[in-house]
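Dear support,

I submitted the protein below through the web form. The confirmation email said the job was done, but the results page showed an empty box. After a refresh the structure appeared. I'm attaching both so you can tell me whether what I see now is the final result or a partial one.
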Amino acid sequence: MRTAARLALVLAALGLGCGGGALGPNARAPQPDLPALASPPGSPAALVLISVAGLSADAYGPDGTMPTLRLLAQAGVAAERVEAVTPGSPYPVHATLVTGQRPGRHGILADRLITEEGLARARPWRAESYQVGTLWDAIAQRGGRTAAFDWPTTQGAALSAVLPDGEPVGRDESWLAVIAPTTTPWLHELAKLAPPAVARPGLERDHFLVQAACTVLQSDAAPRLVLLRLRAPEKPVLQRGPDSEPAAAAFAAVDAELATLLDCLAGGPGIERSALVVTGDRALRAVHSAVRPNRILAHAGLLAGESAGWSALARSNGGSAFVYARDAESAVAARAALASEAESGGAFHIVSAEEMIARRADPEAWFGLEAEPGFVFLDGHRGPVLAPAPVRAVGGYLEPSQASPGFVAWGQGFRSKLRVPSLHQLDVAPTLARLLDIPMPDADGRSLIGLLRVPGSVAAGPPESGGFE
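What the results page shows now:
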């Protein structure tokens, strides 16, 4: 498909070209009819892996606002519980979803970078941060095509089509300028013509990303793997809480985009030959108060402030924080200062180096901190140590909670009407690699063959007497 034709199709879908009539970001898509998927077991022609900010199983449960995802969960594979990696924050999690490895191995250790001056505003956007291979690398080695839309850490990635994540960090920067050097040219041209609201994460950007993904899926050279991050629920979930009306409305909008994607697959590689995996990025807990561990370190003389150097600093993951030091003496002083506050304030506790090693957390951290229920860590070093939290919910805790990210898989190669009591985020990539018949030998997670209908699996054969399929 020529670039001009791509642009015309997507602009029309966004309401910017002739024809119109497409669903906008606030519209509700009709609930789709799912085929019975009677095709033989095998790998899908197209797999779409979608992460949804803050998604839990409750969102597609009986009282949720996601009927399309509920339908996929009822017809396909749905996990009752998903265990997160450490730390369970967006950038490490997304890297784990495409590598099957823990942050200490894949190299994406947190949501913010540490420099000689302190914590940087920039995120780990560059794909060269990976220390291991990814799903798209494995597909490319087999000659397959791949695409990613706003997926974390994809700037400079070897993808067939990419619109990477990235946000302005300076006042004079723009979203278009940040992503321009590493965006596929025709996608960047499309982004330049999109409404201004697309420059910010939210409903409009999600709608734009889905329409762009649909164009790729319906092209003459459709990719084998599409990665898509939808962030519309992020702001309302964090600022208003997971149970708020704005959060419910955002999840409903994401659900409408999922229905659109199913329509796109029907018009592209064929819905009977496609598969969708939808997963949350983190488990969220309600919070009311914030802790600034870097204020404690600054008071102890270990942190001079922004761009002024540091001997020790804490990097927040939300419900946990990891502490880094230049040397052992600074690490001991930092622990003493933070332990004193933990004992007197009761807002958090120290996580020892031994515990960090057992959790396979960041090997560069000297020790960690975990917030007590209702508390969240902030990165700043100014202001009081304890203050009202600027958000209503966060993830990134070390200890598991009742809440966990959601996980739904449906389509070619997945079993039907299957409930999974528990899986780990580490299991996603090796399971998808098995589905796509590509190598991923070094993954920390398991390839859950029991979720699949592929050659070599028990579920691929005819039902046994009293069987499940």
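Response: this is the final, complete result; the empty box was a page-load delay. Residues 245-267 form the longest helix (23 residues).
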